[in-house]
Specification:
The chain is mainly α. It has helices at residues 13-24, 29-36, 40-53, 55-59, 72-82, 98-109, 115-124. The longest helix has 14 residues, at 40-53.
Length: 131
């Protein structure tokens, strides 16, 4: 993926690059965390990586978030659910949102997935067109 910054990396690196640019411009960790909806700990981690190795060090970060807890059967059900209208599962929006998927997984399976895990699930199973 070619982001606005001209750096190539997985889709989730854009926010990391923006954080680095904000820090480089002199914004505080608190400002970066608030603007990008990061925890202060994550913003500090990005700042340390950027300081040590520049923007490219942020591209080498791996994806984050809780690993899969759904059974293969549960995952198949969820993928099928995402391929259909959210209204079939009680969500009023015409398209799925990541927040709705988090809520659906929690309601159906009692598992609370992070937003980054939902992003990974969407990416890994080619579900982007449903969002």
């Amino acid at each position: 993926m070619e982001g606005k910054t001209g750096f190539r990396g997985p889709p989730w690196t854009d926010r990391r690059i923006i954080a680095a640019e904000m820090l480089e411009a002199g914004q505080s960790i608190q400002q970066v965390a608030a603007a990008l909806k990061l925890s202060p700990a994550t913003a500090r981690r990005y700042a340390a990586l950027f300081k040590a190795g520049g923007k490219h060090s942020l591209l080498r970060l791996r994806d984050v978030g809780r690993r899969r807890q759904l059974t293969a059967e549960g995952l198949s059900w969820l993928i099928a659910a995402i391929k259909h209208a959210p209204a079939l599962h009680g969500f009023p929006t015409p398209r799925w949102t990541r927040e709705a998927i988090v809520e659906l997984v929690e309601q159906k399976f009692g598992i609370r997935y992070s937003r980054s895990h939902i992003n990974r699930l969407i990416r890994d199973h080619g579900l982007q067109e449903h969002f």
